[in-house]
Amino acid sequence: MKWRIASVAFLLSVVGTGFTWLTLQRPLLALVEVARHCAVTGSPEAAVLARTIGSLPFLLLLDLVLLTVLAYGVLDFMVGRPLRRTEVVVEQLGRLELDVSVPERPGPLLSRIQRALSRMAAALQEEQDTTRRQVEALRAANARLTQAQTELVSAERLATVGRLAAGVAHEVGNPLAGILGYLSLAGARVKDPEVQEYLGRIDHEVQRIDRIVRGLLEIGRPERERQGPVEVGHVVETCVQLVKVGRDFSRVELVLELSPGLLVRADSGPLSQIVINLLLNAVQAMGGKGCVRLSTCSEAGEVLLVVEDTGPGIPEEVMPRLFEPFFTTKEPGQGTGLGLAVSLHLAEGMGGRLVAENVPGGGARFSVRLPAI
């Protein structure tokens, strides 16, 4: 930029000096004739005129240099510096760095350009903010759409399981009752210990099938209309007293942090089933050893029941499918994958919600929210 301005300044000075020489050419020629005449006549002014004429080339060169410096200074002040600042601003805009600073004194020739750049930067900044807000809104809408799609898929699966349960419950339930009855009779008549062991195993497996059918019936069962005031703390204490005598809870510490007098509009039966399912899942996740904390509190017109364990937590790849029917991470024969699906269905049937998350310090947390009274 500076070399270009210098070349333009030199060209302007050459043109200016040339015009000056053309303008003064006739007077100078006349002065030369006078000097020549004075030299012929022997006038004393002849020497002065000769020195003056001899210094003309030096004076013309000096004028050329002075004009070049003056033109360079003027062009650099009026054009060069504003153009360099404008170039910096344009490069910032090209990198989408919209927080640009336009000089307060851009110069008389480029003031309009600088103001136009400032307006363009402000418009681009506003457009970028609008685009960012639209992108955030689209992301939120996409997240809601994905969640709604997941809920619809889960609801469709639950409906399918419900229809399946309604179709097979009668056909499967009655034969199972008959099998259990015959097993009881056989066990009473057979005295062989080995046969007794085989009959016990058969009875255990048949009862497991019966539990699976009952779980299917819970999913397919319509929501209960008879719901009344239920004290959450009393239900939790009853469930804890029921399960803690079991062999699986012998090395488990149960910690209760229950706020008294919290009433919800629910059914004590389904609520008890939810609490027992969550307790059993927590104990199985910890491998039968650890601490389970149950707490209740009131929050924004709802009662919050939280069950936390000190197990390994829920893997990230398992979390999206946690409440799917028949999905389980347990060993074959150890679980049916219906406990959490049934619990979610029961919680939603009472107008509540059931969510799962990992505790930052380790372990899993299941939160049941029910409408308070």
Shape: rod-shaped
Helix and strand sequence: HHHHHEHEEHEEHEE
Number of strands: 7
Q: If strands are numbered along the chain, what order do they take across the biggest sheet?
A: 2-4-5-7-6
Instruction: Provide a count of the helices.
Output: 8
For the record, give the distance between the C-alpha atoms at the N and C termini, rounded to a whole number.
79 Å
Q: Into which percent range does the helicity of residues fall? A: 55-70%
Describe the largest sheet: 5 strands, mixed
How large is the radius of gyration?
A: 48 Å
Write down the overall mean pLDDT: 78
> What class do helices, strands and sheet pairing give?
alpha+beta
Can you describe what's shown?
It is a single chain. This protein is of the alpha+beta class. 64% of the residues lie in helices and 12% in strands. It has helices at 2-41, 45-54, 56-94, 111-189, 193-220, 232-243, 268-285, 339-349; strands at residues 228-231, 252-257, 263-266, 290-299, 302-309, 353-358, 364-371. It has a five-stranded mixed β-sheet with strand order 2-4-5-7-6. β6 (353-358) and β7 form a beta hairpin. α3 runs parallel beside α4 (111-189) and α7 runs antiparallel to α8 (339-349). The longest helix is centred in the middle third of the chain and has 79 residues, at 111-189. The model has no long low-confidence stretch (mean pLDDT 78).
How would you concisely characterize the structure shown here?
This protein is of the alpha+beta class. The protein contains eight helices and seven strands; from the N terminus they run αααααβαββαββαββ. Helix content is 64%, strand content 12%.
